[in-house]
Amino acid sequence: MSGALLVAGTHSDAGKSVVTAGICRWLVRQGVSVAPFKAQNMSLNSMVTADGAEIGRAQVMQAAAARIEPTAEMNPVLLKPGGERSSQVVLLGRAVGELSAARYHGKQAVLLDTVLDCLATLRARHDVVVCEGAGSPAEINLRHSDIVNLGLATAAGLPVVVVGDIDRGGVFASLYGTLALLSPTDQRHIAGFLINRFRGDVGLLEPGLDMLRGLTGRPVYGVLPMLQGLGIDEEDGLGLASRTGAPTAPPHGEEVLRVAVVAWPLLSNFTDIDALVAEPGVTVRFTDRPEDLADADLVVLPGTRGTVRALDWLRERSFDTALAARAAAGRPILGVCGGYQALARTIDDPVESRRGRVPGLGLLPTRVRFAPDKTLGRPEGTGYGHPVRAYEIHHGVVTVDDDPDTTAFLDGCRTGATWGTTWHGALENDAFRRAFLSDVAAVAGRRFVPAPDTCFAALREAQLDRLGDLIERHADTDALWRLIENGPPDDLPFIPPGAP
């Protein structure tokens, strides 16, 4: 077969990413060569491909669902917010500049050719390409420059399925209203709907499904039940609440290990925490209150797109005082990428904040200078005697000063009970993670022993299988096959605004 499908949503976090991944996993189980695609992604969660391109982590997750290696073509445009009104534009895996929202939307139309070329490349390589939209296709104020929703669908002749989140309420109004706001040309591509995150008896929902079909002339292709505890890669911070460890006793030690993650501005690559959440006996909470650090065995400063801005935020809330007291008492702190940079003595930033030289937290004997070119890589090394594979994405270049109390830690350093590294994903390496947590527990005085058989890669694979099961068991897969092969149906009625 050969074909494509676009998964849109009534709003952000409706479930587009997981539905796209689920369709990819369902198709690859059928022996179909499939690839994911998202023309334009706005996210601070990104990763580096094997050939050194930066793309959104959601597309990396979807490529894993499709059992293929991710490439730059799967996410040709990545926007990384740097503030309320501007974003770094990453084009085909390389940062090309910082633009305001207004300036970017003025340039979107010229990017459509690049987007279509990438889609054509993927379609030539694979039997099926499953595309993911962004936000809502009914953002009528942006339709003239759209390259990711119906702008893409109309240019490439794609059928569109709209996902609605029933858990938020108002799903029928959202699905109907999304369709009714579209032009006749755009409506011709909306083939039907999927209802996501349903709890309860589907039989009670069926009259509403019948009414929606009668009003729109379009079917609901499935009602997908709520899946708890997915913890898979997301585009933004909307899924932070689900990234917490259950407070259960560890199977080997006597105590749990408590981790507090600082939820500071422009939080990026918070997927680094997922391996800690997956570890039995580890509890994780994200916090914006310094008092929550008091009872934590480990405090993590994660990545951030704005290190200097994050430092301002820490100081405004007295986190700097709490962290300094913690370091002085020899209580564990881990900084990753932007978090590692924040631990430095000084930061010279003419790139992100353009503030020049500012003081860091001074908890590690390091200095940071932001370079105009971004470092992208997939480094390998050892930690605690175990192999570590990771990835790095940063402008900040860290120099470690000579200090007799400082030792190497991955590419970074350790002083006392404070660790820092630029490497993302290091904790996904099972043996290294267990050794690190054992060291943290010993320093913290906790009787915690990591489980010896936890395999993060296997857990993630099982989650992707859950998504494939979700589509296979609860969606009309025969109808999805027909859409993928044949494109939008020819007999879809136009629904004028304000109907019926």
UniProtKB/TrEMBL annotation:
Domain of life: Bacteria
Coiled coil (UniProt feature): none
Gene3D superfamilies according to UniProt: 3.40.50.880, P-loop containing nucleotide triphosphate hydrolases
Residue ranges annotated for the CobB/CobQ-like glutamine amidotransferase domain, each copy included: 258-431
Single Gene Ontology BP annotation: cobalamin biosynthetic process
CobQ/CobB/MinD/ParA nucleotide binding domain sequence ranges: 6-232
PROSITE patterns on file: GATASE_COBBQ, GATASE_TYPE_1
Positions of the catalytic residues: 337, 424
Pathway(s) this gene product operates in, as recorded in its UniProt entry: Cofactor biosynthesis; adenosylcobalamin biosynthesis
A single MF term (Gene Ontology): ligase activity
NCBIfam families xrefs: cobQ, PRK00784.1
PANTHER family associated with the record: COBYRIC ACID SYNTHASE, DETHIOBIOTIN SYNTHETASE
Described function: Catalyzes amidations at positions B, D, E, and G on adenosylcobyrinic A,C-diamide. NH(2) groups are provided by glutamine, and one molecule of ATP is hydrogenolyzed for each amidation.
Protein name (database record): Cobyric acid synthase
Lineage summary: Bacteria, Bacillati, Actinomycetota, Actinomycetes, Kitasatosporales
